[in-house]
Amino acid sequence: MKRKGIIIVVSGFSGAGKGTIMKALTAKYDQYALSISATTRDPRPGEENGREYFFVSNEEFEKLIKEDGLIEHAGYVNHYYGTPRKFVEDKLNAGIDVILEIEIQGALQIKEQYKDAVLLFVMPPSAEELEKRLRGRGTESDEVIRQRLQTACKEAVGIENYDYIVVNDVLEDAVERVHGIISAAHGTPDRNMEFIENMRKQLNDVAGNE
Fold first, then answer.
1. CA distance to 108, 127, 139, 148, 173, per residue, from 152 (Å)
2. How far is the CA of 60 from the CAs of 11, 28, 56, 64, in angstroms?
3. Domains: count for the chain
4. Average pLDDT of the chain, as a whole number
5. What angle do CA 144, 129, 169 make, to 5 degrees?
6. Cα three-residue angle 111-25-7, rounded to 5 degrees
7. Residue 159 structural domain
């Protein structure tokens, strides 16, 4: 039975550690590919174009939208983010699970297009820990941190639209929880209908049913 890739959508409050979990997951297991998003925001220190993100202008981003080159896109804290379609489709066809680290708006767009996508929401153990992590970055002003915390308040209302939540307290534990969820998802009947139909046909053949 040929393995088919699944889209894994990972969202979470800014500062919850979703990016750190995904990097650790893809470093430990080779069946995952982390999708690279396009964004109009400026690179943070240490980020490189084509590695963390494709950094594009507003004009370039709007061109991608017009040409249907994105499977989802959303605005977040005054910038655009979107997922290039070709990268995702190529990986899925090769049997690789594609992890999309995107916000709630984009996650729901993905679920509409890919019914078997798995939606995960990463949460910190507490709101106080979330603020501590945001301040610990040392890359953003108090005003931006306040905006991110206000955005988290709004995002908290939509968590119930996800399939699973993962609390990121101890990184290694969170990585294994995510891997376990994805592994289990591959075994659900709705993601194995071709195999099930083939088995039914074989059973009828060996049983002599017409």
1. 17, 9, 18, 6, 23
2. 25, 34, 6, 6
3. 1
4. 90
5. 125
6. 20
7. 7-35+97-207
Flag whether 60 is in a domain. no
CA nearest to 22, candidates 101, 76, 87: 101
pLDDT digits over 125-162, tens only?
998 888 888 888 777 788 888 888 998 888 888 899 99
**CATH code (residue 111):** 3.40.50.300
Burial state string for 121-141 with b = 16 or more CB within 10 A and e = fewer than 16: bbbbeeeebbbebbeeeeebe
Q: What pairs with residue 76 in β-bridges?
A: 79
Question: pLDDT tens-digit profile of 164-207?
Answer: 999 999 999 999 999 999 999 999 998 999 899 999 999 999 99
What pTM, to 2 d.p., does this model score?
Answer: 0.80
Domain assignment present for 79: no
Enclosing H/E stretch for 53? strand 53-55
- Determine, yes or no, domain membership for 67: no
Asked if residue 64 belongs to a domain, the reply is: no
